[in-house]
Amino acid sequence: PHLSKPRGPMWQRLGAPWNKVLLFFPTFILLLPLLLQLLLLLLLLLLLLILAFFINNLTNLFLNVTSFTVSTCSSVAQCDEDWELNGTQCYYFSNRSLQLTWTSSKDKCQSKRGDLIKIESREEQVQDTLNRGKLDERFWIGLTDSQTEGEWLWTDGSPLNQSLEFWTKNEHNTEPDNWKEEDVDGENCAIIGEIMFINGLKSWYDNSCKNKYRFICEKKATRSATCG
Ligand SMILES: *[C@@H]1O[C@H](CO)[C@@H](O)[C@H](O)[C@H]1NC(C)=O
Ligand SMILES: *[C@@H]1O[C@H](CO)[C@@H](O)[C@H](O)[C@H]1NC(C)=O
Ligand SMILES: *[C@@H]1O[C@H](CO)[C@@H](O)[C@H](O)[C@H]1NC(C)=O
Ligand SMILES: *[C@@H]1O[C@H](CO)[C@@H](O)[C@H](O)[C@H]1NC(C)=O
């Protein structure tokens, strides 16, 4: 084989930029441990940064979870459309174009998953009588004595609490009077309101169950958690 004369070292044969690089190489090897240390330091910094990011995120998550349960979430009482919320109860006041007999009113309320109103406190009485009755409105309430004359029962079968009855008593009317001139069966269903009957909190009177009036339904408000 024809062996050519060895030429000078490779870096001598290469162009100007390359010989500089190759000259640098031995120096680079000498510096390698230092560079490695630097690289390690950089890696460590990066790791710390990543760790810090995670910790920050974890703190965020923790804070989010805390605020989520402590302040952002709350249980809210709600009523269906057309029902009015007061406290824990929802009320439906039928309008003038929806006037029914007492029994049909009760059926209507029950078809709306409620019942005719049962007045169980002075607050409930104030809210429903004085606020509506002053407008000269009258409404059926869930009180009847059609089973036994004079024994007033709510639609759930519970008797009327003597200390929570609001029958009208004034110079013109002492209710209930079971007036028989309009209906021979007498008056066995209770109405709330109508300004001439309102005397303080007292605003109930009995009427013929066959008459058609507006009515008030009641049901428990639904509770739902809202978070925002
Ligand atoms: C914490 O909540 C904020 C604001 O709602 C949101 O931008 C962030 O992504 C949440 N952080 C985590 C870790 O879920
Ligand atoms: C009265 O109530 C009925 C039944 O809820 C409803 O369909 C009707 O639109 C109401 N009328 C008025 C004038 O509000
Ligand atoms: C509930 O009824 C009471 C008593 O009438 C009244 O003071 C209050 O404002 C009502 N609350 C609502 C949310 O309507
Ligand atoms: C009747 O109402 C009064 C006053 O709200 C109450 O203290 C009492 O417990 C009630 N009685 C019955 C049997 O529910």
Automatic annotation (TrEMBL):
<dbReference type="InterPro" id="IPR001304">
    <property type="entry name" value="C-type_lectin-like"/>
</dbReference>
<keyword id="KW-1133">Transmembrane helix</keyword>
<feature type="domain" description="C-type lectin">
    <location>
        <begin position="86"/>
        <end position="218"/>
    </location>
</feature>
<dbReference type="Pfam" id="PF00059">
    <property type="entry name" value="Lectin_C"/>
</dbReference>
<keyword id="KW-0430">Lectin</keyword>
<dbReference type="InterPro" id="IPR050111">
    <property type="entry name" value="C-type_lectin/snaclec_domain"/>
</dbReference>
<keyword id="KW-0472">Membrane</keyword>
<dbReference type="InterPro" id="IPR033989">
    <property type="entry name" value="CD209-like_CTLD"/>
</dbReference>
<dbReference type="GO" id="GO:0030246">
    <property type="term" value="F:carbohydrate binding"/>
</dbReference>
<dbReference type="InterPro" id="IPR016186">
    <property type="entry name" value="C-type_lectin-like/link_sf"/>
</dbReference>
<feature type="transmembrane region" description="Helical">
    <location>
        <begin position="21"/>
        <end position="54"/>
    </location>
</feature>
<dbReference type="InterPro" id="IPR016187">
    <property type="entry name" value="CTDL_fold"/>
</dbReference>
<protein>
    <recommendedName>
        <fullName>C-type lectin domain-containing protein</fullName>
    </recommendedName>
</protein>
<keyword id="KW-0812">Transmembrane</keyword>
